[in-house]
Fold each of these.
Amino acid sequence: MSVDLSVNIAGVTFKNPVMDASGTFGSGMEYSEFTDLNKLGAVVTKGVSDVPWEGNPTPRIAETPSGMMNAIGLQNPGIDVFIERDLKFLEDFDTNVIVNVCGHREEEYLTVVERLADRKRVQMLEINVSCPNVKTGGIAFGTDAGMLEHITSEIKKKAAQPVIMKLSPNVTDIAEMGRAAEAGGADAISLINTLMAMKIDIYKRDFAIANKTGGLSGPAIRPVAVRMVYDVSHAVKVPVIGMGGITSGEDAIEFMMAGASAVAVGMYNFHDPGAMLKVIKGIEDFCEKTGVKAVNEIIGCVG
Amino acid sequence: MINEKAVVTENKKLAEGVFSTVFRTEAAGICKAGQFVMVGTGSDSRLLKRPISISGADPVSGEIRLVYRTVGYGTTELSLSKEGDSFDILGPAGNGFPVEKAADRQHILLVAGGIGAPPLLYLVRELKKQGIDRDRITAVLGYRGEKYGLFLKDEFENEANVVLSSDDGSVGVHGTVMDAIGEKVTEADMIFACGPLGMLKAVKGYALEKGIPAYISLEEKMACGVGACLGCIVKTAGVDSHSHVNNARICTEGPVFEASEVMI
Ligand SMILES: Cc1cc2nc3c(=O)[nH]c(=O)nc-3n(C[C@H](O)[C@H](O)[C@H](O)COP(=O)(O)OP(=O)(O)OC[C@H]3O[C@@H](n4cnc5c(N)ncnc54)[C@H](O)[C@@H]3O)c2cc1C
Ligand SMILES: Cc1cc2nc3c(=O)[nH]c(=O)nc-3n(C[C@H](O)[C@H](O)[C@H](O)COP(=O)(O)O)c2cc1C
Ligand code: FES
């Protein structure tokens, strides 16, 4: 029981390295009956934009081998309702709050970032420049290194909290994207967002998802994610938050050994609403079993 | 909501491809008609839970019953289960039918298309428990045909007046449930319906035309079942309470909606 699970990311202390991956946990409200939010390293909220977004038509999700595809299209109530309802709800919990921000255009991101500047409840911002399910903007910032560096630096000028840039895996050279975010002033980097994918219902001769393409997540993408976390964490000096198919403490440890300072659990929350507490316990068990006194000792220990 | 491993206490075949599985679960003490549970597949490559309506609950024995058609991996696994097997169960989820709104109604019409019948069986029993007697309730049940099995028919007949329809004309009115309503149902002042989308659209049209309140249970692909993923929305006439757009979450604000509220 004496394992030190705390980690530090850009000056923010986390009681343990486990948080939810944006969009898979709402703002914590829906899952708070299954997972004590006070036990999490952080709650990462669903992407929020300047105004409400309707998202995509249904079907929005499809099961795939060891994972799922989604094309929610970032449905959200917009920053005003988010501040009044979701942030207020999180006021009562003793955990870090990371707000995930989305937009089509630069001004939209900046509006949200500015609206959050005076919110003490928010410890960090995570900028989603990588959602594959939104037609304009968003994804372009995440796939063009020049644009990524530019938007990072613009956001940094307005942000009151440390900024995490969330990278898209749908690029040729992920390390280059990591370096671009760092050059733009990112305080940390998170990855991976979902991999662009497609599924066809052969009996209906139609796409399984109305958007045609969707983002793949879950254990199916884990080896890709581990490799990308390794590549980025060896290309930059800022801390990295790793995600992609984490289901257990062992999976989390794998990401940390590849270079992640913290990890996020995504679609596995749907499989088991208590998953994150088991991941935290699993990390602790691994450390005890293998004689690790402080979990931060293992960060990047491989390679 | 309960999140637990629930134990199978009974599993039987009702018709070709239709099964009834009973679970012992704490959800039995807190669920209501129209709600559903998310059932795990037991596979570590089929990670999403499957939404299945509760077709009956006994708070005393602590059991719920699921009646389902085998369509893919999860429902097939369930159908192969034996007493003592366990499955992950999350629920009860969703809003359920507004049973109380039927209290003063004289001609309650239940419309079930095929595998839409299970939640309505739970509902009819709850209506009876409220003191509504059988001659105030008509259940219209649509089947493929006699040779495919008339699952749950006898159980409905124990509770209410039953009108049947079949696609092949082997039993009841030859045609859809709407054809059966047209031929056999003279009065209704309240409708509850569950079935394929095409049927629900027809029920909605009928209810709007006649000015009858109608509550319909919708389906959509679900990942979380608790309102977090926003995968399961239906377009609504009014602004929704969650995202303040016009999208209600079927798993949370539904699966039962007043027909005029949803843009189906
Ligand atoms: C609220 C609700 C209540 C339901 N109640 C019943 C019931 O009482 N009896 C019954 O037989 N069926 C019911 N269904 C449909 C049932 O969910 C599907 O038949 C089941 O999910 C199929 O799973 P599978 O693994 O056998 O099929 P697969 O084809 O292997 O499933 C693949 C994926 O698609 C999803 N899926 C497939 N068909 C449907 C569908 N029609 N609706 C939603 N998701 C689907 C599965 O959940 C899974 O994620 C209900 C659906 C909803 C939304
Ligand atoms: C249903 C769903 C919704 C998501 N919504 C968001 C989002 O709003 N913002 C974001 O940055 N990432 C979003 N993601 C991506 C996840 O945060 C995560 O990067 C990805 O799913 C990989 O992790 P996993 O394999 O553990 O799910 C979403 C993923 C899923 C499955
Ligand atoms: S299934 Fe996730 S919000 Fe309904």
Amino acid sequence: MHPAFSVIFLTTLIGAGQGLFLALITGQSYSALKLLPSQDSTDFYGMGAVIVLLLLIGGLIASFFHLGHPERAWRSAAMWRTSWLSREVIALPTLMGLVFVYGVMQFMGWDTVLFTSAAGANLQLTMIVGIVGALATFALFLCTGMIYACLKFLQEWHSPLTVINYTLLGTASGFILATAFANHNAPELMNFFGIWAIIITLAAFITRAASLMRNSRIKAKSTMQTALGVRHNKIQQKAMGFMGGSVNTRDFFNHASVLMMRNMKWIFIVLAFIIPLITLWYGMSQADTSWLLAAFLIQYVGLIAERWFFFAQANHPQNLYYQTV
Amino acid sequence: MTQLALIIDLNVCVGCHACVTSCKEWNTSGSAGFMTDENPYGKDPTGTFFNRVQTYEIGEFPSTETLHFPKSCLHCEDPPCVPVCPTGASYKRKEDGIVLVDYDKCIGCRYCSWACPYGAREIDEKQKVMKKCTLCVDRIYDEELPESERKPACVLACPTNARLFGDVHDSESEVSSTIREEGGYQLMPEWGTKPANHYLPRRKTRMHIHEDELQRADNPLKKEERGPRAPVDAPTLDDSTSW
Ligand code: SF4
Ligand code: SF4
């Protein structure tokens, strides 16, 4: 498939936003259980929610560039019963709404303690909104991943690994951002987020490598023989019916050389996993926000490469019909 | 239930592209608006088509044969392109099984074209909506046209009669019996899309002559000789007897 930059930015930006939100909620639930020192609601949770919201809005804006008729985008919530894309269109604004409410509550200090356990753990109002938001975050990861995983003849995508990778990669990027953010606004939490970021990045590395291995062994179900219904081992296209290209030649081929594909794979492995891990570790040991931020940004570039590769690697069966001009 | 469909006979298609041009002509002048063409007379012309004819070579020289292969939306009975559409712009009509796009609802997200394994959907790069074969839904029911012309434009245009149109759910219809009797098949059956359109394979008419058919083993030559005759000068029965 041809990697569309609108979709690449959409998925990477909202992934980072969702991950950061999960990080905030993880931090908050640890402090509710008194496992972590509690943080200032404005400086940390409130500002964190603002960053999450900005990332989600950035993704939303990117997605509009993918549409031919963005002014009709509201229609796309209609078919949630059958379409994962429609479900995503519902899940994204829902999450944005919840993050917004969460942020406002943190800024305004609307944070009644609803319940205190005997051990002194507090259940606060924002925690409830946060947990609902975390559920919406996972729902959104599921929708985003399923948009690709549900297309069964795109065999490279048709696997639970697609959903798992979207979730883990987004979460990893959000947790690295949370580490940098915490170092600046709540230094005591920096190591907590940093260690989680390392664990999640390693987990994402394992699942992404698993999908690379799976995809390298895929045997295409559709062949020239099934595409034309002709039983002969030697079938060659002589003309595709037009000379100037069409949507079929532009949208469904990656237009990348073998060399570029091979390089891109290593580029994303290095930029999304190896360098960020090293930079993150160094930044944590120095407690230096700029290093931590650099880890996030490098990984973000790596994730763009990863997403590019994700699209470019998928081989659509329609390509069988478009081999020769 | 009705399921309208095309049957394409690969045995007689000569690859003349008459169906391609008549399809474009009919559909670009329809109420749904033009079908984009860019650089139609320049370098690298490109545009939206509902129907394409491709050419393949089967086998290796010298024993090759040419296959002309018209390709358009197959109006699948279980169309993967329909449930993925977020707006409901893509739908399959209950009454006749035609898969259509509502151009006023389509947001041009291209997701349905990803979900069609045949590459039958093409986004219109100017109008920014998804387009595909409609089986000429705006002419097959048009009562202003004489009955014989209420068929898709491609079917009417085909000079070799390689395209048949009809209801594949009616077992008695011409298309159904043709599929049954001429070995009609579906494309990429592995995805379970159940295309309504069928293709008829290339069928070669060969004469098989065996050695023993040249020599009639059971037929002694003498049987075919002339029967015995009396010499011309010998008296006939009439000469020697009186009645
Ligand atoms: S051929 Fe493609 S566009 Fe047509 S109904 Fe089947 S899946 Fe949908
Ligand atoms: S391009 Fe149009 S018809 Fe296709 S899935 Fe998107 S909204 Fe539906």
